[in-house]
Amino acid sequence: MKTITRFLRTVAIASSVMVSMNAWSQSGQPHSVKASAIFDQVTVQWNAPASDIELKWHDDKSYNGMDGLRNDPQGTSVIYAASKFLPSELAAVAGEKIDAIAYFQYRNVTNVRVMIYENGKVVRDQPVDVSGFSKNSWKKVTLNDPYTITGNAELMFVVRFEHGYNMNFVANTSRYTHPGKGNWVSYDGKNFTATGNGDFLITAFIKNSATAEPTGYNVFRNAEQVNTDLITTTSSVLEGEPEGTNSYRVDAVYADGVKQSYAVKATVVKASNMLAPAATFAGTATELNGELVWQAPLKGGNELTWSNKNFATRIGGTSSSAPKVWVKQEFDASDLLSFQHYKINAINAFVAEAITGATVFVLKDGVIDYSEVVESVEGVGGNKWSKFTLSTPYELATGHEYAFGVYFTHASGGHPIGVDNSEAVDVKGNSFSVTSPSSKGFNQSKPTWKTLSSGKIAGNFMLTADVEAIGEAAPVVEPKGYDLYRDGEKVASDLTTTSFSDAVQQPGTYNYTLVTKYEGKQSPALTTSVKYTMPAIYSAPVITDNSFNKETGEFNLAWSPEAAELKHYDTPTYTAGFNEEMALVYGAKFTKEELADYKGYEIKSIKFGIGAALESFKIEIINGKGERLASEEISGSDVQPVTFYSLTLSNPVAITGEEDLYLAYNATLPAKVSAMILDKGPAVDGGAMVSLSNGANWLKLGTIATDYAAYNIVIGATALPKNETANAKSINIGTSINMNDAEVITIDANDLKVGLGVEATAQTATAKKVAKKESTRPKAVGYKVYCNGEVKAQQSERTYKEVLKTNGEFDYFVTSVFENGWESPASKVVVVDNPIVQASPAPYSLKGNLGDNGTLKLSWKASNEASVLTYMNATDADMALGLTGSGTREAYAAVRFPLDSLTAYAGKKITYISFKLASVDLKTANVFVMIGEGQDIVFEQPVDVASLKIGWNVIRLNKPFEITGDTPVGFGYHVTYANGVKPHILDAGPATAPGLSDQISSSASDGSWQSLKNKFKQDYNWRITATIADADTVIASKKAARVKDAGEEAYNVYRDDKLIASNVSTTNFDVENAINGTYTVTAVAGGEESAKSNAVVFEAGLKLGDLNADGNIDASDVTALINKVLGVTEIADDICDINGDGIVNVSDVTALINIILAK
User: Fold this and answer.
1) Do domains 298-469 and 562-756 have the same CATH topology?
2) Structural domain spans, the chain
3) Closest C-alpha to 527, from 6, 8, 5
4) Which residues are bridge partners to 327 per DSSP?
5) The pTM is what?
6) What are 871-892's pLDDT values in tens digits?
């Protein structure tokens, strides 16, 4: 598998280095000194003596961000962002104290911690008070226990963000990266990699005892003062600095003298002595073999462009009313080193057909600095170049980034803008936008740029600029070669080609630097990172079987390193159907040539999924003659839509390597029902086949539905060597992959054209084939089984069994461990859904008190007396509502309770979320809980759509959610449905708390929540409630009991999940001679038993087996038990039923003896 890294260009036109110096104690010196050079201009910056002393790699500017990883499918995501400093980089501040850590706030995340790692070990870990959040600001956290820098340890300053999946860009980064310094990231707090998309905005602060303010500053270069007048700011720009590596320091001037800062160095190279680096620099890796490629630099002359001017295709805007497209070519300061002292006279564009308008523009440092409307576009087009001469030539100043381009408008359906056939200079040569110009003026526009490559369109825009030297033109200079470095070590010298093949010994991310060499001239260095992966022979094990018994909680998993996956599809992405009912066999074809490597294997399971509910269908294997080798009927009630399943065949099917095989669905697809699941393409030979003749003859899907021609049908199989242990004989459906996180939408032909906002006239795709069997696969010495990201087992066996004792969704995968210590990629994920039994609400507020003679007095409230959080008005009238728009609609309906309204509920738990529906024509449904001012979704639980009903739906949570009392809480439901459906129900109004009782969002993302009343003038409240249960309590002292009548309910009392009393008619019960244990109560009404109440944990009673109540379990208790069995002594059965079978007899004597012997 080839891994292509994102091109990251870090141009160091000149360097800025903070050099090591002797340790010093802050006592009035300027600090945090930096010197950065752009050619012969040096900017020296520092902080005032009494200001914060900072340790950081970033530039203080937020540019990008990263999200956490959601290991628990129903829980939160976590990311650890880190900045690393080596001992040599801390030598100057050894002995100083870190007293605060700051991070940049962009999302209102509820759970944040700041940490310090010393040589990989956590030495500080402190939660953050996130109140008072302010977006796009810094949060400074004072450490409760300041950390002293030793100077001989590596430090990482870490911020841990825990957030809902509805939050993104939580860990912010700067635009540029110090690889291996400021870009460390982890998802478990243990394994860090330098793969951040920039330097994380994390700053550590050193305690500063200085208080005096100087009258000003002097700047020194190489011990010589460079300023004449005293500087009163904290920066200075020095022009015309001498070439070479210079040392800069700053002196703070006080009334009684001066105090010097440490020195920093900057390397100055005059622009006149520099030429352009390579135009691009990027790397790819196939396993441990890398390929570094670059493009020759711009060499000067009278034309500025990235295009080769050879036409390949044309694009146009997709708007149906007023198509518009901005196109540009951009050049950074280093690209233009061969164009110093030049001006742009004209901008040229290849235009394929007539346009309705054009405006040429020039951007300087990302902002429009010049624009000019083309007065007449008559004659423009016709597959030819057009010259747009600037009325005022535009001068290019050295040291800046520039771009030129054209803003086109054209007729609907047109494709006037030319694209060439050259290798894309990504971002620089192929950027476009469909943003509307600003109403405040064209030059105020801020287009949002995309690239052609992001839409799989190759090439660069056919744009050029006529440029002219101001004064004497510099000669065109060819580079004499290139030097290449890997992680600072030179791997190639004087290369004359524009590519280099490299190989490494270990997987990982490596940083490469490319230096373009000229005779007598220098060039800025370019950097890129390449990620190398393990060879494919170190492959992931293949899941061969899985099962889950919901009654017992037993989960079984089996895998094999020799198994083969037969599949043509990629990521499941779309659901599709037909306008009329159709009896169809559809699936994927595998030719005998593709299967030849697996002769002697057997197909033992098939992976499949349906996009919409069907009454029933078949999964089949059919050979090239139309013969059915396997056919398993699936009831629609056994599977859920938009979920990927593994079906174990009753009888494995042998692969002979001498016949074609089709993996297929056999179903009658109802009209306008999107039951077929497709990937995102491109189409593969055999990837989407259909038969209208029950498998006798086959056609490509695209021949009967051209809208689907670019995609593959989602179906696959697992094949194993014949001697592998056979799977279960009966049909076993085990959930394999939940697709709810994929972009699963119903295909609409028009929707497929608007993703980028532009479309090309033609595109091509490369097909992929079934992976060949590896003949030299290394032997695995063990396996790791993971559940929700945590290692559950390390073992040599190829099967795993676990009894799940908690409810929720659990993601399992397996890796292989090899003799060299490498761990394979993860297998496919097996999703185990272990939902809690949807019983009716439990009795409320169970309490226990210790009475006389060891009696435990239990009391509770009837289930209908439980506290409920809601804003609903107490009326019967309802209002129905649905979101409108094209395609599938997604809606989050929620109510939210501020912190001051939750005081009485602190420590209690939300056990049920209830909501009312007007329609159950839904595709998916979930309930969720969110917290914090940012409405961070911290829990979301899927709901079986088939179980929903019109009216009230009461959903018991897999994990009761505790109200902590220190953060706002919201809850609601999340559904998707077709346009036109109106499933939501509100009361008749008015809204009791607009913005709280009527929240609506289509994404739940930060800032997306709206009030139905305030935004849409719908003055109602959601029919949404949450049922509150008391927290569990521990009883160890005597308290008064409270008794209340039970009403119509009857109750069962349990100790340690064993029934000790049934059909109790009141809301109280006395447990005489109570023994230690966990007591709960259920309600029984209409023959149905409710969920269990909150628990009372009793620790003041008798121990099971302590029959004589002397506090010990010994031989005297055996005697007492024998007397009980013989009828000589009366002792409570509860204490004597040692083995818990409900009967006191000789078997309990044996059990008690075994307890004593085991002590």
Assistant:
1) yes
2) 13-51+212-274, 52-206, 298-469, 483-532, 562-756, 844-863+1032-1098, 873-1022, 1115-1158
3) 8
4) 406, 432
5) 0.70
6) 999 888 899 999 888 778 999 9
